[in-house]
C-alpha cells in the first residue's frame, strides 16, 4: 500500500465510524480492482456533454475506450497534455455553417 493510501486508511480507521478490518478490506479491494483495470490498457477519452450523442454512437466501435465527461475545454487540453486523458473529443463550430434560427 502506498504512503498516501496508508495515511487515508489510518485516518479512516481512527474515526471510529467503521471497523479497522472493513477499512483494510475496502482499500485492498480498491487497489486490486485498480491494478486489474490498469492491466487492461484502456484509453481514456474526454468529451463534453454536447458531444454525448456522438460519443455514445462511437462507444461500441472500440471496447478499449473509456469515456469521461469533462466540464471545460481547458480540462481537455490539460488532460491530454498531462497524460490523464489519451484523447479529447472537442466540439468544433465552423463559420461556413449558419447558426440555427432557434
Quick overview of this protein structure:
The chain is an alpha/beta fold and 102 residues long. 47% of the residues lie in helices and 13% in strands. It folds into 2 domains: 1-40; 41-93, no CATH class.
Task: Give a description of the structure.
The protein has about 100 residues and is an alpha/beta fold. Helices cover about 45% and strands about 15% of the residues. The chain has a 3-stranded parallel sheet with strand order 2-1-3, covered by helices on one side. Helix 3 (about 50-60) links the parallel strand 1 (about 45) and strand 2 (about 65-70).
Secondary-structure blueprint of this entry?
Blueprint: H1 3-13, H2 20-39, E1 43-47, H3 52-58, E2 65-69, H4 73-82, E3 87-89
Parallel strand pairs: 1-2, 1-3
